[in-house]
From TrEMBL:
<dbReference type="InterPro" id="IPR000253">
    <property type="entry name" value="FHA_dom"/>
</dbReference>
<protein>
    <submittedName>
        <fullName>FHA domain-containing protein</fullName>
    </submittedName>
</protein>
<dbReference type="InterPro" id="IPR025874">
    <property type="entry name" value="DZR"/>
</dbReference>
<dbReference type="Pfam" id="PF12773">
    <property type="entry name" value="DZR"/>
</dbReference>
<feature type="domain" description="FHA">
    <location>
        <begin position="144"/>
        <end position="200"/>
    </location>
</feature>
<dbReference type="InterPro" id="IPR008984">
    <property type="entry name" value="SMAD_FHA_dom_sf"/>
</dbReference>
<dbReference type="Pfam" id="PF00498">
    <property type="entry name" value="FHA"/>
</dbReference>
Amino acid sequence: MLTCPNCAHPNPEGATQCEACYTPLPEIVACPNCNAAVSAGAEYCGQCGYAMQSVKPVHSPVPQTIVNPPTPASNLQAEVQSSPIGPAITPPPPIAVMPDATVAPAPLPSSPTAAKTQLQQFTARLLHVQSNTVLELPPHLDVIHIGKPNDRVPPDLDVSGFADSDIVSRIHADIRAEAGAYYIEDVGSSNGTYVNNLPLRPGDRHRLRPGDRISLGKGDKVTFHFQA
């Protein structure tokens, strides 16, 4: 069964969108190294740290549409003049431009990078419940790794300094920023990730909303509140 990351509705295997809320469901692939279930968008396997770039689905290229080239203006004018029906069409005279006229330059289009930066300007953070410590989410990262120091996927949010952090895996969960929203997914942790006391299966994503309670591992020992 595939659990909807938006409404937690169980869907049958192979479904592409939620039957209840029509949210697109994430694609699940198997890690070639340890056979763990991993989201198709994950960069690394959360169980063994294997780079998942090589198992991403390959999409066939979109066929190009061949457009006939336009008829040159000279040929079009010759066809009109040689047509026996109707009078010949005289092209309009060129528009004269005054020498003292000033033409304002067109505004430059905004770059995708600037637009992306504007979408991520709002503040998002995690409040550690047990110590009342605030962890700011880096606004310049699209994927934020949560875990403990390791030599494969260094964490962007290091929770090794909190009490009971031994239940947190070195590569535990990811928070993704997409179009002004944040999503959390478990990347194969040993003790699991829980959102509002519900387990988050590896590969499933949950859209975070202000007030959501995130627990890393069982027992609600390393807990955060999402704030935005």
